[in-house]
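Before we proceed, please read the two lines closing this message. Let me know whether the structure tokens fit the sequence:

…
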Amino acid sequence: MDETYQKRIADEYRRCVDGTIRRITHNQRTYRPFHTALLSEEVIFWSAFERSFSTSFGQRVMEEIARLTALSNGAEVAQRQKETLVEIDEAQAEGIHRHIQQLRSAGGGVPQSCAAVLEELRQIPASGQVRRVRIISDLWWRKDGVDYFVSLKTVKPNIDQTAVAKEDCLHLSLADPTCGAYFGLPYNPYGERREDYDFHPPMGIFDFRRDPAVLIGRDLWDTIGGPGCYDSLIALAQQVGRETKDKIQKMLR
């Protein structure tokens, strides 16, 4: 990764921690008499700190790091919260709706890969009527003339988020078969291998363990930033962590 982008990503890590420290230092803590009675001040502090950090890190920071990572890997342009308008035949759009509804119903079965669903959707006879669909992608970039879209979610997404993300992937891929449309999680909370992923609520929408449209941890970052990107991002975080951990410890002295 280019040194300039390494510095910018390291600054994102640093700002996120510094922002958490400021919020915890200046914001009045919530009055929780039962917590105070039952838990130590240190436990309450660390709980509040981790919650505040995770909220910031899992939203804007991850998206911005992903944008910078795409640019570092030769993207011509990259953008967060990209709006895209696509036109889909009405019959195919209804096919996507039925697919999602079936998955969300009781006994919806094992979800197919996006590629398999797209193949079925393309077999639906065209109605001749067009539906315009508005899509907001957490990350979009263009490289070598190809558009890439990622719905970048928390590592334990809810069913509603996941269903919308799959609809987006299908709409984008039908409108532009050359694009890359993905559902991404920044890391796997259950281990390095995608086969270890074990948060069941959203797994009825995507096949988390086998669908190439689902990118978790290393697969996500190496897709955005090229081979070795995930390891580089972890190494950068460890480097910044040497100074941020010291700042945090000083808060408790």
